[in-house]
Amino acid sequence: MTNPSPQQHLLSILLEILKIADNEHTELDKSIHRSNISEDEKRNLQNSSETLKSTTEIARKLVEKLERYK
Known about the structure:
- This protein is mostly helical.
- The chain has one domain.
- The protein has helices at residues 6-34, 39-68.
- α1 packs antiparallel against α2 (39-68).
- It is elongated.
């Protein structure tokens, strides 16, 4: 069995980081709903969370495409 190239190793690490980010988004959403802050602040946090989710999803798709070309 051959060792993975540095690029393959980096891609696998990036995928693991993205999995962690997904879990963090879920926890953030739960925390927002439980928090004792104004509805405006909750909306702002939810918007930020949605932006992070979108960015994470874009990153995941890019990593998956890069994996196909390894």
